[in-house]
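Appendix B. Raw example, untouched.
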Amino acid sequence: MSCSRNLKINRTTKTMTDTDTTDRFVIEVSQVGTVDHIVDLEADSADRSPYAPRRDLPGEKLCDRSTRSPASEYIELRDYADWKGFDKAAFDGDAPDEVCSYCWADVVAEAERGEQHKRDDVDERIGSVGYHLRWKQKGRARGEWYDIVVRPETTIAELDSLVCRFTTLDDLHLRMYGLEDEYIDSTLTIIPDQQFTEIGDPSYTKASEMTITDVAERATLWDGDRLSMVYDFGTPSHYYCIVKEVYEPDEIERLLDEREPIAATETAAIIGEKRP
């Protein structure tokens, strides 16, 4: 787990206002550590197991630089600022000395991203656009990558068929798709149809029943965002993609006319690669 948690896991498509931000993110005051941290109240706790000792704590802390305690208090930023005697009514600028700078930077970045989405009219465009996804394997990202173009209606099953084509992955081990940096902790829990049938566990989602638009609406998928895929839950290999471009439908058709796809499905295609 990185120092900064991926906020897109629980992002809604609504642009965050200052009020939204201060209602969603609170300061977790604890006796552990030298600074206080920030908790996202809209996030599900990372301790999903019913046996986890901290399963009843609200939300999720934004970094992993301290442990959480049931004795912690949760205070809105304005009240915390009054208590500590600093001038901060919103999450902006640099973090005060009393608050974890990693947590603070995450909230600031989220608010800035929301403002950029508002300017780009992202909420209205999702569902009508396609994406240029650059897929890589962790540990081999510089030496090997594959560019896949997907249309809004592309299913994860189609995407999976292209990902498996260049990764040579098979169905001997489970593979699962998720949002950025989720991997084995995927909130999407999307697995290939064949594996879904074999497992028979309804907590997973069939790849053919989820489209790129479905994922984009859940994650507000846009330039620079990522998706993840894990192969083999026992000894996992980690794959991910970066959204390199967002395309209007006519741009996708023009792109595919100009380039001969390396491989294609009805709605998606591998259009470029770098191989060792």
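End of appendix B.
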